[in-house]
Write a structure and sequence with these properties.
With 91 residues, the protein is mostly helical. Helix content is 81%, strand content 0%. The protein has three helices and no strands. α1 runs antiparallel to α2 and α2 packs antiparallel against α3.
């Protein structure tokens, strides 16, 4: 039987922990986005504004941790803000 490489085992454990942590952050971002889109669809300006702030915070946190790229976070924030502005523009 061959000798196992302990450093490879450790790296595997570390990558698994990081993968699960990244997965939870990405899931939180998607959940925030879904709640925001639901509030925009319901035409609830106050709730949509609060959800947009929450979503922005989640995206910034994920970008800062390197879970999503900073330009991807900026793009998503921009699109969500644009949706808010178009939906709740004073006519």
């Amino acid at each position: 039987m061959s000798v196992k490489n302990s450093s490879a085992e450790k790296r595997h454990k570390q990558s698994e922990v990081r993968r699960l942590r990244n997965k939870s952050v990405k899931s939180a971002v998607r959940t925030c986005a879904k709640k925001y889109l639901a509030s925009v669809t319901a035409k609830d300006s106050a709730e949509a504004s609060a959800r947009l702030r929450e979503l922005t915070k989640e995206l910034d946190t994920a970008a800062r941790k390197g879970i999503i790229a900073k330009n991807a976070a900026a793009r998503k924030k921009s699109r969500m803000q644009k949706l808010y502005n178009v939906t709740f523009a004073a006519k």
